[in-house]
Amino acid sequence: MTTIVAMALASCGAEIRGKRATAVNGKGVTVLDRSKVTDSIDVKLSELAGSFELIRFESGEQAMFQFWWPYFSEHYVCIKQSQGPLKLFDTKGRFIHDVGAVGHGPGEYVGVYDVLIDETRGRICVAPFVGSDVLVYDMKGRYQKSIRLRDRINKGRLHPQADGSLTLVHLCFGDMGDQATQFTTASINPDKAEGGVRYSFQKALATRARNEQGQTVGFNNEIFAYSNTPAMAFQLTSSDTLYHFDPKAQRAAPYFTIKRRGESDKDFVLYNELPGHLLTSVDGKLILTEKKTGLSAYARFRNDYLGGMEMYPMTQDGYVWKEWAPEELRDELKQVLDRGGLPAKDESRLRQLISSLKDEDNDIILRARLKN
Fold first, then answer.
1. What is the β-pairing status of strands 112-118 and 123-128?
2. pLDDT tens-digit series, residues 1-51
3. Cα separations (Å) of 107 from 100, 136, 155, 204, 277?
4. Is the pTM of this model over 0.90?
5. 353: closest CA among 309, 301, 302, 315?
C-alpha cells in the first residue's frame, strides 16, 4: 500500500511529492525505497535552520589553525585540526586556549576522533583515534582527568545524555589486522569515580570495509555520528543502517536503512539525522526524508543567508555549518554577485563582506541552529 501524496515538509516549507518510506517487521526500522524517490526540491537553508552566525576567528599566532572539523555548544566552538592541538574559541571568534596538547603525557593526545563540549557542566571531553582514555578538560582547555576504559578505544564517538553521562561507541576488533565485525558501547559518567563505566558488545550487520583484494580491514572502518538529536544516532562504514543507542537498555537497534534499486546498486550511503528529517547521501545526491510522514525527495540546498549559493548541509551538535578560508569565501561570493538578481540590500552586504576578507586571516565558519 503505497500512496502518492503531496504535502509540505514541516520544517522546510518546501512542497514535495514522494512515496512513503515503509516500516518493516514491526520493529521500528524505517526503510527508504530508493527506487520510489523520483521528485526533486530546492530547500533554502533558512527553512532548515535559523539564528545564523558568521564566525570570523581571530588571526593571532596562537589562534591560527589547520581546519579539520568543528564542535559546537551555545557559546563555544572547538576546532579539530589536521595537525596540532584542539583550538577553543567563543562564538565571537575570540581565541580562548588550546585544549590539551599533542603528546604522550598526562592529558595529551596523539590523535583526536571526537569532541564533546558540555558547557552546562563546564567540561570538554575528548575521545581518541586510538587509546585507552577519554580525556576531560575544563572550559579553558586545562586538563582535569582521564577516564580509563577496560579495552582500547578505536575511533570513539561521544554523545551526551540528559543526566550528564556520556555514551561512547567505538569499533571493536577481534584481530586488529583483519576485520571489524562488532562495535562496543560504554556509558561514562565523568562525575563518578573511575568514570562509572558500563560496557555493551554487539554484532553489527555489514560493517566490513574491504581492501582491493576483497579482504576486510578493520581500521578502514569509520563511525559517523553528529549529535544533532537527543538519541545517539550512528553509522559504521560499509553499513547501510543508521543505529539508535538506548542508554537504559545499553543496546543499539537499527533505526533507518535504505532499500537498493537493484543488485547493481552498491553506492556508499551516508546518513545524517536532523531533528525533523533524515538526510541520505548516495551516488552524489541528497535525499531528504521527513520523519513524521516518511515523505522523501532529492534535495538541493541553497544558502540564502549568503546569496543563494549551493551548499552541502554539514551538521554537528545541532547546527548546520560551512567553513571557508578567506579567499575561498571571497571567490564564492563573487560568483553569487556575478549571477545577479539579488536585492540591493543583500548585494551591498555581500560586497562589504568581500572587501573585509584578507587572505592572511584565519578561517571563517557560518553556523545556524537546526530547527526542531
1. antiparallel
2. 222 222 334 444 455 667 777 766 556 789 998 888 989 999 999 999 999
3. 6, 8, 18, 32, 38
4. no
5. 309
